[in-house]
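Researcher: We're reviewing a set of sequences before deciding which ones to prioritize for further study. For each one, I'd like a predicted 3D structure that I can look through quickly. This is Plastid-encoded RNA polymerase subunit alpha. If possible, include the structure in token form so it fits the rest of the review sheet.
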Amino acid sequence: MYQPKLSKLLTIECIEHKVSEANSRYGRFKIGPLNTGQGITVGNSLRRTLLSDITGLAITNAKINVENISGISELVESDSELIIPKFHEFSTIPGVRESVLEILLNLKNIILSDNSTDFAEDQLGSLQCTGPCQITARDLILPETIKVVDPDQYIATMVSNQIFSIKVIIKHGRGVTEIPVQLDLKTQQKDCFDFLTIDATYIPIKKVNYTIEEKFLGDGIDSLKELITLEVWTNGSVKPQKAVSSAINTLVDLYLSIQNTMVV
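Model: Here's the predicted structure for Plastid-encoded RNA polymerase subunit alpha, in token form for your review sheet.
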């Protein structure tokens, strides 16, 4: 008996999409119809892929410099004629309300989006402000393809009349890269020796949920089908539709690679 392929029957539809006040995005999708028992297979694999395999951007390193208006820098010079930052993670900065650690945490919370499909190399960003003033992500100067999702993201407040500057390194990756791993990578790049390291969180997906609904589609014995309602919340750097599409492509590539290497 001829049975139509599931791919000809299966559909996915975005039934709701909205952007919250915090610039995060929400999408709700209907997937189906599926045979009985397949809903949890498809739903769980999509959920796990969305939470672990969708790539994103993150600020991984930062270099902080403060100068008086007279031009005297807060950096010190070592005997080896290399400029070494006076500030470490637990330093306080004269004329700046936040400590270095608080500034690094604020930089970590900046959400970036990339309109380019080619992100092979690390990117650099910078800012320079003259106090007194409040510094936000809006002040960052970034490459053309990289955008700040929330320009009002707070960084620091200067309370004195001096020049405050930051240089940042932006990388593309997935998951979370902790500081020990970052330091191992940093030793391979001699030009980044004076940058402070930040825990990199590349994950653009905040939450994924799915429910399975059983529904009769027809009068036959096999008419009982399953429909998946998939809900996706992102941090605003990627649309839920694009994230779901990327997750599906990741799963297809994974299973195709397994199929191609299978010996019959």
